Amino acid sequence: xxxxxxxxxxxxxxxxxxxxxxxxxxxxxxxxxxxxxxxxxxxxxxxxxxxxxxxxxxxxxxxxxxxxxxxxxxxxxxxxxxxxxxxxxxxxxxxxxxxxxxxxxxxxxxxxxxxxxxxxxxxxxxxxxxxxxxxxxxxxxxxxxxxxxxxxxxxxxxxxxxxxxxxxxxxxxxxxxxxxxxxxxxxxxxxxxxxxxxxxxxxxxxxxxxxxxxxxxxxxxxxxxxxxxxxxxxxxxxxxxxxxxxxxxxxxxxxxxxxxxxxxxxxxxxxxxxxxxxxxxxxxxxxxxxxxxxxxxxxxxxxxxxxxxxxxxxxxxxxxxxxxxxxxxxxxxxxxx
Length: 337
Fold this sequence. Notes:
By secondary structure, the protein is an alpha/beta fold. Helices cover 40% and strands 15% of the residues. It folds into 2 domains: 8-196, Rossmann fold; 238-336, Cytidine Deaminase, domain 2, CATH 3.40.140.20. α2 links the parallel β2 and β3.
Protein backbone atom coordinates (compact mmCIF):
# COMPACT_ATOMS: atom_id res chain seq x y z
CA UNK A 1 0.00 0.00 0.00
CA UNK A 2 1.20 3.53 -0.71
CA UNK A 3 1.94 5.89 2.16
CA UNK A 4 -1.29 7.42 3.55
CA UNK A 5 -1.86 11.13 2.99
CA UNK A 6 -1.36 13.02 6.24
CA UNK A 7 -4.82 14.35 7.05
CA UNK A 8 -4.59 14.68 10.81
CA UNK A 9 -1.92 15.24 13.46
CA UNK A 10 -1.99 14.64 17.21
CA UNK A 11 0.40 16.98 19.03
CA UNK A 12 1.26 16.77 22.74
CA UNK A 13 4.74 17.93 23.71
CA UNK A 14 6.78 19.13 26.65
CA UNK A 15 9.57 20.68 24.55
CA UNK A 16 7.80 23.34 22.48
CA UNK A 17 10.85 24.63 20.59
CA UNK A 18 9.88 25.27 16.99
CA UNK A 19 6.42 23.83 17.56
CA UNK A 20 4.33 26.83 16.52
CA UNK A 21 6.18 27.17 13.22
CA UNK A 22 5.86 23.44 12.56
CA UNK A 23 2.15 23.36 13.39
CA UNK A 24 1.50 26.46 11.30
CA UNK A 25 3.00 24.73 8.26
CA UNK A 26 0.95 21.61 8.93
CA UNK A 27 -2.22 23.67 9.19
CA UNK A 28 -1.38 25.52 5.98
CA UNK A 29 -1.05 22.12 4.27
CA UNK A 30 -4.65 21.34 5.23
CA UNK A 31 -3.81 19.02 8.13
CA UNK A 32 -6.21 19.04 11.07
CA UNK A 33 -4.47 19.35 14.44
CA UNK A 34 -5.72 17.84 17.70
CA UNK A 35 -3.94 18.61 20.93
CA UNK A 36 -4.03 18.55 24.71
CA UNK A 37 -3.74 20.94 27.65
CA UNK A 38 -0.66 23.16 27.58
CA UNK A 39 0.24 22.25 24.02
CA UNK A 40 -3.20 23.28 22.76
CA UNK A 41 -3.01 26.61 24.62
CA UNK A 42 0.46 27.23 23.20
CA UNK A 43 -0.71 26.66 19.65
CA UNK A 44 -3.89 28.67 20.09
CA UNK A 45 -1.88 31.60 21.46
CA UNK A 46 0.12 31.48 18.22
CA UNK A 47 -3.12 31.79 16.20
CA UNK A 48 -3.19 28.17 15.03
CA UNK A 49 -6.51 26.32 14.76
CA UNK A 50 -6.51 23.36 17.15
CA UNK A 51 -9.17 20.87 18.15
CA UNK A 52 -9.20 19.83 21.82
CA UNK A 53 -8.60 16.09 22.19
CA UNK A 54 -11.15 16.00 25.03
CA UNK A 55 -13.81 17.41 22.71
CA UNK A 56 -13.03 14.61 20.23
CA UNK A 57 -13.00 11.74 22.74
CA UNK A 58 -15.90 13.08 24.77
CA UNK A 59 -13.83 12.46 27.89
CA UNK A 60 -12.31 15.34 29.89
CA UNK A 61 -8.75 15.60 31.14
CA UNK A 62 -8.59 14.33 34.73
CA UNK A 63 -6.28 14.08 37.72
CA UNK A 64 -4.23 17.21 36.96
CA UNK A 65 -3.46 15.96 33.46
CA UNK A 66 -2.52 12.42 34.43
CA UNK A 67 -5.36 11.16 32.24
CA UNK A 68 -5.94 12.82 28.87
CA UNK A 69 -4.90 10.76 25.82
CA UNK A 70 -5.36 7.19 27.06
CA UNK A 71 -8.51 6.51 25.08
CA UNK A 72 -9.50 4.01 22.31
CA UNK A 73 -10.53 6.87 20.02
CA UNK A 74 -6.93 8.10 20.18
CA UNK A 75 -5.03 4.83 20.01
CA UNK A 76 -7.35 3.27 17.46
CA UNK A 77 -6.57 6.12 15.08
CA UNK A 78 -2.83 5.65 15.61
CA UNK A 79 -2.63 1.86 15.46
CA UNK A 80 -5.02 1.15 12.57
CA UNK A 81 -3.61 -0.71 9.57
CA UNK A 82 -4.80 1.02 6.43
CA UNK A 83 -4.56 -2.18 4.39
CA UNK A 84 -6.65 -4.17 6.86
CA UNK A 85 -10.38 -3.92 6.07
CA UNK A 86 -11.41 -5.03 9.58
CA UNK A 87 -9.31 -2.26 11.16
CA UNK A 88 -10.77 0.41 8.91
CA UNK A 89 -14.38 -0.73 9.27
CA UNK A 90 -13.88 -0.82 13.03
CA UNK A 91 -12.85 2.83 12.95
CA UNK A 92 -15.97 3.72 11.00
CA UNK A 93 -18.24 1.73 13.31
CA UNK A 94 -16.94 3.54 16.40
CA UNK A 95 -16.41 7.03 14.99
CA UNK A 96 -12.63 6.89 15.30
CA UNK A 97 -10.50 9.31 13.29
CA UNK A 98 -7.13 8.36 11.81
CA UNK A 99 -3.90 10.04 12.97
CA UNK A 100 -1.24 9.85 10.29
CA UNK A 101 1.17 12.06 12.27
CA UNK A 102 1.89 11.92 16.00
CA UNK A 103 4.12 14.60 17.55
CA UNK A 104 5.09 13.79 21.13
CA UNK A 105 8.03 14.35 23.41
CA UNK A 106 8.06 13.48 27.08
CA UNK A 107 7.96 15.21 30.45
CA UNK A 108 11.43 16.47 31.47
CA UNK A 109 12.14 13.75 34.03
CA UNK A 110 15.94 13.79 33.66
CA UNK A 111 16.13 17.56 33.96
CA UNK A 112 13.88 17.49 37.01
CA UNK A 113 15.81 14.88 39.01
CA UNK A 114 19.12 16.53 38.09
CA UNK A 115 18.15 19.59 40.14
CA UNK A 116 19.42 19.88 43.69
CA UNK A 117 16.95 18.85 46.38
CA UNK A 118 14.11 17.62 44.18
CA UNK A 119 11.50 15.80 46.24
CA UNK A 120 10.44 12.34 45.15
CA UNK A 121 6.82 13.49 44.79
CA UNK A 122 7.91 16.10 42.24
CA UNK A 123 10.00 13.54 40.37
CA UNK A 124 7.10 11.12 40.21
CA UNK A 125 4.85 13.75 38.62
CA UNK A 126 7.39 14.01 35.80
CA UNK A 127 6.96 10.33 34.91
CA UNK A 128 5.04 10.48 31.65
CA UNK A 129 2.43 7.77 31.03
CA UNK A 130 0.38 8.83 28.03
CA UNK A 131 3.36 10.21 26.13
CA UNK A 132 5.40 6.99 25.95
CA UNK A 133 2.24 5.07 25.08
CA UNK A 134 1.53 7.40 22.15
CA UNK A 135 5.14 7.25 20.99
CA UNK A 136 5.32 3.46 21.11
CA UNK A 137 1.96 3.03 19.39
CA UNK A 138 2.91 5.33 16.52
CA UNK A 139 6.37 3.78 16.21
CA UNK A 140 4.92 0.26 16.16
CA UNK A 141 2.58 1.27 13.36
CA UNK A 142 5.25 3.14 11.38
CA UNK A 143 4.14 1.31 8.26
CA UNK A 144 1.38 3.94 8.20
CA UNK A 145 1.96 6.44 11.04
CA UNK A 146 4.70 9.05 11.33
CA UNK A 147 6.11 9.70 14.80
CA UNK A 148 8.08 12.86 15.69
CA UNK A 149 9.83 12.95 19.07
CA UNK A 150 12.26 15.84 18.52
CA UNK A 151 12.09 19.34 17.02
CA UNK A 152 15.11 18.34 14.93
CA UNK A 153 12.81 16.08 12.90
CA UNK A 154 10.22 18.71 11.98
CA UNK A 155 11.99 20.08 8.91
CA UNK A 156 12.39 16.71 7.19
CA UNK A 157 8.78 15.76 7.88
CA UNK A 158 7.54 19.06 6.44
CA UNK A 159 9.69 18.66 3.33
CA UNK A 160 8.08 15.32 2.53
CA UNK A 161 4.54 16.50 3.31
CA UNK A 162 5.00 19.55 1.10
CA UNK A 163 6.36 17.38 -1.70
CA UNK A 164 3.88 14.48 -1.59
CA UNK A 165 1.29 15.10 1.11
CA UNK A 166 2.77 12.14 2.97
CA UNK A 167 6.00 10.76 4.38
CA UNK A 168 7.81 7.79 2.89
CA UNK A 169 8.38 4.46 4.61
CA UNK A 170 12.13 4.95 4.88
CA UNK A 171 11.68 8.12 6.93
CA UNK A 172 8.93 6.59 9.08
CA UNK A 173 11.12 3.59 9.85
CA UNK A 174 14.02 5.84 10.86
CA UNK A 175 11.76 7.98 13.04
CA UNK A 176 10.35 4.84 14.67
CA UNK A 177 13.84 3.71 15.62
CA UNK A 178 14.59 7.12 17.12
CA UNK A 179 11.27 7.02 18.97
CA UNK A 180 12.00 3.67 20.60
CA UNK A 181 15.46 4.96 21.57
CA UNK A 182 13.75 8.03 23.07
CA UNK A 183 11.41 5.99 25.27
CA UNK A 184 14.16 3.51 26.19
CA UNK A 185 16.38 6.30 27.46
CA UNK A 186 13.45 7.83 29.33
CA UNK A 187 12.61 4.55 31.06
CA UNK A 188 16.29 3.99 31.81
CA UNK A 189 16.50 7.38 33.54
CA UNK A 190 13.46 6.54 35.68
CA UNK A 191 14.84 3.10 36.56
CA UNK A 192 18.20 4.62 37.49
CA UNK A 193 16.50 7.21 39.69
CA UNK A 194 14.65 4.58 41.67
CA UNK A 195 17.69 2.28 41.81
CA UNK A 196 19.76 5.13 43.21
CA UNK A 197 17.32 5.55 46.09
CA UNK A 198 17.39 1.88 47.06
CA UNK A 199 21.09 1.11 47.12
CA UNK A 200 23.40 -0.56 49.56
CA UNK A 201 26.49 1.53 50.32
CA UNK A 202 25.68 3.91 47.49
CA UNK A 203 25.96 1.44 44.60
CA UNK A 204 22.90 0.48 42.51
CA UNK A 205 22.33 -3.14 41.54
CA UNK A 206 22.43 -2.27 37.83
CA UNK A 207 23.85 0.62 35.85
CA UNK A 208 22.47 1.69 32.47
CA UNK A 209 24.60 3.59 29.97
CA UNK A 210 23.33 5.60 27.02
CA UNK A 211 25.51 6.92 24.19
CA UNK A 212 24.62 9.10 21.21
CA UNK A 213 26.45 8.66 17.91
CA UNK A 214 28.27 11.84 16.92
CA UNK A 215 30.04 10.71 13.75
CA UNK A 216 30.79 7.78 11.47
CA UNK A 217 34.54 7.70 10.87
CA UNK A 218 36.37 7.06 7.62
CA UNK A 219 37.74 3.80 9.08
CA UNK A 220 38.80 2.27 12.38
CA UNK A 221 42.25 1.65 13.82
CA UNK A 222 43.14 0.06 10.48
CA UNK A 223 41.78 0.91 7.00
CA UNK A 224 39.81 -2.34 6.67
CA UNK A 225 37.84 -1.67 9.90
CA UNK A 226 34.66 0.37 10.37
CA UNK A 227 34.26 2.81 13.26
CA UNK A 228 32.01 5.45 14.79
CA UNK A 229 32.35 7.78 17.76
CA UNK A 230 29.72 8.05 20.49
CA UNK A 231 29.14 10.50 23.34
CA UNK A 232 27.88 9.56 26.79
CA UNK A 233 24.43 11.14 26.91
CA UNK A 234 24.76 11.87 30.64
CA UNK A 235 28.15 13.61 30.61
CA UNK A 236 28.38 17.35 30.02
CA UNK A 237 32.14 17.75 30.54
CA UNK A 238 33.96 19.21 27.50
CA UNK A 239 35.77 16.48 25.61
CA UNK A 240 37.33 15.56 22.29
CA UNK A 241 33.89 14.51 21.05
CA UNK A 242 32.28 17.86 21.90
CA UNK A 243 35.22 19.98 20.74
CA UNK A 244 34.74 22.33 17.78
CA UNK A 245 37.01 21.54 14.85
CA UNK A 246 38.31 24.82 13.46
CA UNK A 247 40.28 23.60 10.46
CA UNK A 248 41.64 20.60 8.61
CA UNK A 249 40.45 17.25 7.34
CA UNK A 250 38.04 14.86 9.02
CA UNK A 251 39.54 13.31 12.14
CA UNK A 252 40.36 9.62 12.12
CA UNK A 253 39.94 6.98 14.82
CA UNK A 254 43.64 7.20 15.71
CA UNK A 255 43.51 11.01 15.75
CA UNK A 256 40.68 10.89 18.29
CA UNK A 257 42.55 8.42 20.50
CA UNK A 258 45.65 10.62 20.55
CA UNK A 259 43.64 13.81 21.07
CA UNK A 260 41.82 12.24 24.01
CA UNK A 261 45.13 11.11 25.55
CA UNK A 262 46.91 14.46 25.31
CA UNK A 263 43.84 16.28 26.63
CA UNK A 264 43.77 13.97 29.65
CA UNK A 265 47.45 14.68 30.34
CA UNK A 266 47.42 18.48 30.15
CA UNK A 267 44.26 18.72 32.26
CA UNK A 268 46.33 17.63 35.27
CA UNK A 269 48.34 20.88 35.29
CA UNK A 270 47.55 24.46 36.27
CA UNK A 271 50.69 25.92 34.70
CA UNK A 272 50.96 26.10 30.91
CA UNK A 273 51.33 22.50 29.73
CA UNK A 274 51.78 20.71 26.41
CA UNK A 275 51.70 16.98 25.65
CA UNK A 276 52.77 15.24 22.43
CA UNK A 277 51.37 11.89 21.27
CA UNK A 278 51.69 9.73 18.16
CA UNK A 279 49.80 6.48 17.67
CA UNK A 280 48.99 6.55 21.39
CA UNK A 281 52.68 6.63 22.31
CA UNK A 282 53.89 9.63 24.36
CA UNK A 283 56.60 11.61 22.60
CA UNK A 284 56.99 14.46 25.07
CA UNK A 285 55.33 16.57 27.72
CA UNK A 286 56.31 19.76 29.47
CA UNK A 287 55.19 22.59 31.71
CA UNK A 288 56.66 26.08 31.71
CA UNK A 289 55.94 29.68 32.62
CA UNK A 290 54.39 30.25 29.20
CA UNK A 291 52.79 28.10 26.53
CA UNK A 292 55.45 28.75 23.89
CA UNK A 293 58.24 27.47 26.12
CA UNK A 294 56.16 24.46 27.15
CA UNK A 295 55.58 23.74 23.45
CA UNK A 296 59.30 23.94 22.67
CA UNK A 297 60.22 21.63 25.54
CA UNK A 298 57.51 19.08 24.75
CA UNK A 299 58.53 18.88 21.09
CA UNK A 300 62.14 18.44 22.14
CA UNK A 301 61.34 15.33 24.18
CA UNK A 302 61.57 13.06 21.11
CA UNK A 303 61.77 15.26 18.00
CA UNK A 304 61.90 12.38 15.55
CA UNK A 305 58.80 10.63 16.92
CA UNK A 306 57.00 13.97 17.29
CA UNK A 307 56.91 14.45 13.50
CA UNK A 308 53.26 14.11 12.46
CA UNK A 309 52.13 14.00 16.08
CA UNK A 310 49.09 15.20 18.03
CA UNK A 311 49.43 18.03 20.57
CA UNK A 312 47.35 18.89 23.60
CA UNK A 313 47.53 22.29 25.32
CA UNK A 314 45.78 23.50 28.46
CA UNK A 315 45.62 27.05 27.12
CA UNK A 316 44.39 28.62 23.87
CA UNK A 317 47.13 28.53 21.23
CA UNK A 318 48.84 31.94 21.18
CA UNK A 319 51.00 33.53 18.51
CA UNK A 320 54.28 32.66 20.24
CA UNK A 321 53.33 28.96 20.45
CA UNK A 322 52.27 28.99 16.79
CA UNK A 323 55.68 30.45 15.87
CA UNK A 324 57.39 27.55 17.63
CA UNK A 325 55.32 25.02 15.69
CA UNK A 326 56.02 26.85 12.41
CA UNK A 327 59.78 26.30 12.72
CA UNK A 328 61.37 24.27 9.90
CA UNK A 329 61.35 20.51 10.35
CA UNK A 330 58.26 20.37 12.55
CA UNK A 331 54.94 18.88 11.47
CA UNK A 332 51.89 18.52 13.71
CA UNK A 333 48.77 16.71 12.52
CA UNK A 334 46.29 18.05 15.07
CA UNK A 335 46.10 20.24 18.17
CA UNK A 336 43.49 20.34 20.93
CA UNK A 337 43.50 23.30 23.28
